[in-house]
Structure formats: C-alpha cells, structure tokens
Amino acid sequence: MPTVQVTEVVPASIDALYNILSDMAQFPRFMKNVEAVTIIERGDTYTHSAWVVKLQGATFKWTERDEFYPDSRRITYRQIQGDLKTFEGYWQLQSVSGGTEVILETTFEFGIPMLSTLLNPVAKLALRENAKSMVQAIASQIPE
Hints:
alpha+beta, globular, Alpha-D-Glucose-1,6-Bisphosphate, Chain A, domain 4, 7 strands
C-alpha cells in the first residue's frame, strides 16, 4: 500500500495547531479541496466524521474514525466506510525551534489491483501536494 508523509515546520504554538486539527468540521472553511466534513458521532476521545474531498478532479467520499491523543499531540484516522479500500494515517505535532513540526501521514489502497500500478504513483503525488496545502492552510488559521 502506498504511504505519503509530509513534514513541515509551522511558526505557531503546538496548542494552537492541535486545536485547529481537532476541529475538523471547520476544514472546508479554509481548505479548498475539502468540500464538506460532518461530525456524525462525538465521544470523549474520538469522532466519526463524513468527508467529501475533491482531488485531481475526482470526488472522494468516506466516513472515518478519528482518535484524539491530546497528551501526545496526535490524531489518528481510519476510513470505516468509503470509496477506497484503505485510507488511514495520523497527524503528529512536535514542538521544535521556530514553532511546531507537523507530520501528516496517509496510507491508502484503491482496491483495484489491475489499476494500482497506474493509479498509485499519480495518487501519491496528488496526496502529497494536497497534504502540503492542508498544512499550509492550517498554518494560515493561526493568528500572528
């Protein structure tokens, strides 16, 4: 399964970034590829969220379980229903000199073996570009 990882240092506090990442329903407001995020269920340490995302002209829909680990500044996500066979990963934040290191990792699988060799390289590139733009969009939400 292909995995994409993006690491960026954002000049913002770890708490401010974690608060934005934890409020996924707000993502469509400042992320152009995210058309909708609806929180279906909310618990003390998790949410079930429904996503609609446009990537490279295609619309993808899925429902995921998001698990929050505020003490370690980590959020994991895993598709529980949707367009891909596998879609999972995590956000990890770490305080560093100059701000916060943001790591976004996504592992995915289309579930169509004959097309995987054609689609996976294109999808990896698109996901990498989308992940970088997501981190930049989140950083833009931090007041200076």
